[in-house]
Design goal:
about 450 residues; alpha/beta; two-stranded antiparallel ribbon; about 10% strand
Length: about 450
């Protein structure tokens, strides 16, 4: 196989239809993405974006907030261009990415006979449209209203299914329109959220590499490097984003776009999310079960989750584990007590979590013995990854302070008990090896709750 490095290429070359053969063994491309318009006044390119997607009669999907932010301007552009369209206005100011809203969009799409979706919004609206377009085999164009998260171009959507947060693999949009005149005027909390979501790569990239060592998981160094490049763009822009500078907001959005490309290249969320996302997912699920909406924006929570994760890494950086003690601790695993705690933390979604564990066997002792043996053999290599690839807490703290975002759980309404519950429960959401699972394997998870 002739392999071509791609991590340093400009976006236009990363989008090439023929993609890239990679030394990791996979072929990477970002199909069906064809066009990205980024900059001041980019909304004027919406007709070209729809033409690239071969959409002549789109269904515009928005919520009340995103309709006010950009929907009216979008409709003006469509009307001036003579493009017929319908509107599906989701009823909630903060809609959830759940079955009800997927159904509402699907019914509107089918009833009106539209040939594609025009998503006007950020995380939730974009994810809902990706899922519907994938199921209906329709193209999607997205007009971004805030640089608040990095999932615009990923080929997965973070959805609530039966109350449990899950990743649904679908397709990325055909075209993306990112008008910085709109983006820089988004609520400051959403600008801070975008930096927070990109800060998460501090953890996710290192954990992806750790899982390759511990679980022999697929890993692509080139995709890792592309994601690191995307993250650094966002981190370096943080101060200017806090001042709403157009150049800085454009740089943050460029990082967000490249992040989505990296995820779509490898068809896994690994380079984008780690423990910090799972802390956020637990907080979301509990908040939705309690009062129907999340406590805070995804990127705000993942930013705080990143800082909490880095606090934990400070404790295991340079650690020499007691592997005999670890094995004895795991041997004492109490499944009935575990199930009781899962039901307490997850509430309505608990039975799905318990069923997933029965399938995946994360706590199966035979599987554990294989993992702990690899951890022991490769501990020096694991420490090198933690030392070289996962930054120190203080470095990440400076990024969030530069944009003026919250830097502690208390600032986003999460008390110590909710942080502990999220850490302990984080390893149960999906079969992904993150720091909380490493701590469990080392017999240190209970002790680690005192490090937060």
């Amino acid at each position: 196989m002739q392999c071509q490095p791609f991590s340093t290429l400009p976006l236009e070359e990363l989008m090439r239809p023929q993609g890239f053969d990679c030394a990791c063994g996979k072929h990477h491309d970002v199909s069906p993405l064809q066009k990205v318009f980024l900059g001041p006044g980019a909304l004027g390119n919406l007709p070209q974006a729809l033409a690239a997607a071969k959409v002549r009669n789109p269904l515009l999907v928005a919520d009340p907030n995103t309709m006010a932010a950009a929907g009216d301007a979008v409709q003006t552009v469509l009307q001036d261009a003579g493009i017929a369209h319908g509107v599906c206005l989701l009823g909630q100011s903060h809609p959830e990415p759940d079955e009800q809203n997927v159904g509402a969009i699907t019914l509107a799409l089918c009833k009106g006979g539209y040939d594609g979706l025009l998503a006007v919004g950020s995380g939730v609206v974009n994810d809902l449209c990706k899922v519907v377009c994938h199921a209906a085999a329709k193209p999607q164009v997205t007009v971004t209203t805030a640089p608040s998260m990095d999932g615009y171009l990923s080929d997965s959507a973070s959805m609530l299914w039966g109350g449990l947060k899950t990743s649904v693999y679908c397709r990325c949009p055909v075209a993306l329109v990112c008008d910085t005149d709109i983006l820089r005027n988004a609520p400051m909390r959403m600008l801070q959220a975008g930096v927070g979501d990109m800060l998460a790569k501090c953890v996710s990239l290192g954990e992806w590499h750790l899982s390759q060592i511990i679980n022999e998981e697929y890993y692509c160094p080139e995709a890792n490097a592309l994601m690191l490049r995307a993250a650094k763009l966002a981190w370096d822009a943080a101060g200017g984003v806090g001042r709403r500078e157009e150049k800085a907001v454009r740089q943050l959005m460029e990082g967000i776009i490249l992040s989505g490309v990296a995820v779509t290249f490898v068809h896994v969320s690994r380079p984008s999310s780690g423990l910090e996302h799972y802390l956020s997912h637990v907080w979301d699920m509990r908040a939705v079960a309690r009062h129907g909406v999340p406590d805070d924006l995804h990127g705000i929570q993942t930013g705080v989750g990143t800082l909490l994760s880095l606090k934990l890494y400070e404790h295991i950086r340079g650690l020499q584990p007691d592997f005999d003690r670890a094995v004895k601790t795991v041997q004492a695993f109490d499944r009935p007590a575990w199930e009781a705690n899962v039901r307490r933390v997850f509430g309505p979604a608990a039975e799905q979590v318990i069923a997933a564990e029965a399938r995946e066997g994360k706590h199966d002792f035979t599987r554990y013995q294989s993992r702990i043996a690899r951890i022991a053999v490769h501990w020096d290599e694991i420490q090198q990854i933690i030392s070289k690839e996962i930054p120190h807490y203080d470095d990440a703290l400076r990024v969030m302070r530069a944009v003026g975002g919250p830097c502690s759980a208390e600032e986003i309404g999460q008390d110590h008990e909710s942080v502990v519950d999220a850490l302990v429960a984080s390893q149960e959401i999906r079969d992904k090896y993150v720091l909380s699972r490493l701590l469990w394997d080392l017999g240190l998870l209970d002790e680690a709750t005192n490090w937060l």
